[in-house]
Amino acid sequence: MAIIEEVVEESVIEKDIQEEVKPIEEQVKMEPDQDGDVFYESVDYQPEELKKLLEEATEYKNKGNTYFSQGEYKKAIAEYENALFTCPESLQKDRAVYFSNIAACHLKQNEYKEARDMCIQALTLDPTYQKALLRKAQANEKIDSSTSLNEALEDYRKLKQIAKDTYSLRECQRAERELPAKVKARTEKEKEEMIGKLKDLGNTLLGKFGLSTDNFQFQPDPSGSGGYSVNFVNNNKQ
Is the whole model's pTM more than 0.90, yes or no? Predict the structure, then answer.
């Protein structure tokens, strides 16, 4: 099986992790009502409180960035989690960055299912977050099941429509060339493995009656539907 390029390009990671935090006014809806009063997304925090919490969360993120650059991925995850615990839920784009950074750490540790789950969290908060979509596609490709490969291909195709950077576009083009054949091969392999397990189970049950799965022939449906017909064969004839 071909090995894909480095899961996440270093320059892409660093650019993402060092992403500037937008001013609090751009992230929190602050529109006056008919009386001129301002209401915020969160009833629990005033603008200054939100700003302070975001600054604290950013400090945790910066610590995580330092650990990440040193290859201390578990420590980096702990700091990004601290950022999540600190950052108000109303600041969804910032929280999406923290989840995506955790995903980058999991990718570096070959923890692909965990990386995919973190990307899903990030995309739930910010569906247009391209780096999280790329990491999710790469994680699913590494998981390497027929389902995950299909999902990876869908995400690469989605990303191709919105990506601007060369690296992402190159990954999308590679995926469109390679993944359809990989999906087909993996699906066939999983089907064979499933049939093998069913045969083992069938032999265990049929053995009680002096039969085995060799007494049954499976013929593919000639119409190409993907189904099978079953014929009984008496192998005990003299």
Answer: no
